[in-house]
Every structure is written in C-alpha cells, then in structure tokens.
Amino acid sequence: MSKRSGVIPDMAKQRPETTSMLSQQDRELIDAACEAIRKRYRHDWQEVGAALRSRSGRIFTGVNLDAYLGRMAVCAEAVALGRAIVDLGEAGIDTIVAVRHPPPNEEDQAISVVSPCGSCRELIWDYDRDARVIVPGADGPAVATIGELLPNKYSRE
Ligand SMILES: [Zn+2]
To answer: Residue 4: inside a domain, yes or no?
Structure first.
C-alpha cells in the first residue's frame, strides 16, 4: 500500500471467499509484522509492515519504502522478501502478511492486517506458487493461498 491509501476502496468489500483459520505460527507472523511497523512507523513514509516465514521456518520482516517519486515506492512485502533472499537465497514463502499502522489522527485504531496489492500478489506467486497469505477475513485475519488471491495470473504467453 502507498500514501494514496485514502482512495483505496474498503477492503472489507473485497474479502476472498476461501479462507481458513490461523495457526499459532500465523499469529506470531502477524505479531512480527506489527512489531516492525510499530518500531519504524513514519507518517507518509513507512506505514505498512510485513513479515514472511520462509519454508525453512525463518521470519523476515519489512516495512514499505514510500518515495517522493511515487513509482519508486516499494511495498513492505517486497522488502521482507528481499531480506529473505539476501540471507537464504531462494527459500520459498511459507506464509506472508502485511499490516497497516493507523495515521496519527486515528490513534484509536489498531494496527491491522491488510491484503497484498495486486503487484505483491504477482511477486508472491513468482517466488512461491503455494504461499499462504494472511488477509482480512469476516471474523478477523484468515489465511488464503496466493492462487486464490490471484486467479488468471498475468502471462506473456
Ligand atoms: Zn504491494
């Protein structure tokens, strides 16, 4: 997500149909993403945190890099994936989650799980077609597969 998040439609209207319950490890991943953005939150620059569990079980976190030149902005999920690849090489994505920190004027709101943007869905699929993604659900965070979140993926063929 970017600083233009104010124009993004309500995610509650876009929830996937197929989701499953969270495991204890999923909850730990959400906590790691929340901790990352709580620590590095900077209004209009770093507002989204992400956490990725590699297939080897290690957790990598990231925060979004917003930019004055908008197209240079990088999502938190991509930063987390980059850190995993630097440390482990191609390690696969078991599960990934992103969370958004509320702006200063909405301090009564909690940090909450957000769905990955379309570009991140493509990225996650490219690096692990079986990745699990924690997304907002009807009764709190839930798990979907990247395939469920990205039907008819872009292909050059
Ligand atoms: Zn994204």
So the answer is: no
